[in-house]
Amino acid sequence: xxxxxxxxxVLWDNVLAGNARRVGEVxxxxxxxxxxxxxxxxxxxxxxxxxxxxxLTDAGLVTEQPAPSARPAGGRPAAVVRLTRAAGLALxxxxxxxxxxxxxxxxxxxxxxxxxxxxxxxxxxxPAEVLDLVTDLVDRTLEASCASRCDVVGVGxxxxxxxTRQGGIGSAALFPAWADLSPGEELAARLGLxxxxxxxxxxxxxxxxxxxxxxxxxxxxxxxxxxGIGAGIVLDGRLYRGTAGTAGELGHVxxxxxxxxxxxxxxxxxxxxxxGRALLENARLTRPEVADLEELVRLATDGDTGCRRLLxxxxxxxxxxxxxxxxxxxxxxxxxxxDLGAAAGLMREPLRxxxxxxxxxxxxxxxxxxxxxxxxxxxxxxxxxLALxxxGAPLGVDTVAPIA
Length: 404
Description:
Blueprint: H1 8-15, H2 18-30, E1 33-34, H3 35-42, H4 46-58, E2 62-66, E3 79-83, E4 89-95, E5 99-106, E6 111-118, H5 127-144, E7 152-159, H6 183-191, E8 195-199, H7 200-211, E9 220-225, E10 229-235, E11 238-240, H8 270-274, H9 276-283, H10 293-301, H11 305-329, E12 333-338, H12 344-358, H13 361-366, E13 368-371, H14 378-388
Parallel strand pairs: 4-7, 7-8, 9-12, 12-13
Antiparallel strand pairs: 1-3, 2-3, 4-5, 5-6, 9-10, 10-11
Helix pairs in contact: 2-4, 5-6, 7-14, 10-11, 11-12
Family: Belongs to the ROK (NagC/XylR) family.
InterPro entries: ATPase_NBD, ROK, ROK_cs, WH-like_DNA-bd_sf, WH_DNA-bd_sf
Protein name: ROK family protein
């Protein structure tokens, strides 16, 4: 390894090697660490870690700083080592049906810039146009970070559909215009960068568990309530994707086998009762001026009787759907995020009542229902985590400098 500057992907693919690479990979996945923690996490001896850090320091890729004050008191705090901006950047992209959000972070887990844009078209029906808009927003967000694509080591893309382990769409009925595409490959071709793709709720779970409302909780369910409803599941400190990669399709749990037909092809799905489309359709019967879910939540929290009733009923139905999952998995925490995350205070108790009607008493008593810390940012930050490789690390290890 030399001190000559290389493109970030070349640096990680071809330049970093041996013990320096091993130490660098651990810092990339876990964030800033003390030397003692690096010994434990790499499995290398203290002198070997020190030699790797010397190589990384000589190349300008790491820096050593005093530990944050939040670390345990008593004696002089150990310094922490973190990757510098010269090591590269990670991109997270959240592609929703009506929005795009992009986040840029350095490999030391610090967010550098975020940008969001509303879509004037429905992402379900216009994949090529939407991916072109994503590419443009990525470049504008990098420009705000005084960076370019050559600084990026990887991209994590979240989409509002089940994603197979091969990166394809897990249900053609839920994202029909995208069914024959590989979204990660399509975006990689536009950006010239490596892209990993996952379901947006999985990425929300990853961000909240690594840095947010689920931190330190090894068994949790993150619920993203937006146009549709999805869940990201963390079990024993690992993101659970299922055999095919499509675990967590909470919105398509059947609540009424004789109910109306859902776009997935089944009947009586939760999404038809509590998803964003259904809520807005019902709200507009009496409040035709309601533009989006954000306005619906605002009206409900301001005391509008009809809007409050819609969210309370939706939360109860959500509790019914989560009851079986709580019985099966016995999670410690349910994290409410997405467009309706801001209404978590209003929805918490009716959700718990729904759980009480469908799950056993012991797991209901044990589970906490909490609002997401990152709210609408969660999936984009989860994309950053995916690009960093956080999903491959045992997430139960505390972070030193959480993303904010």
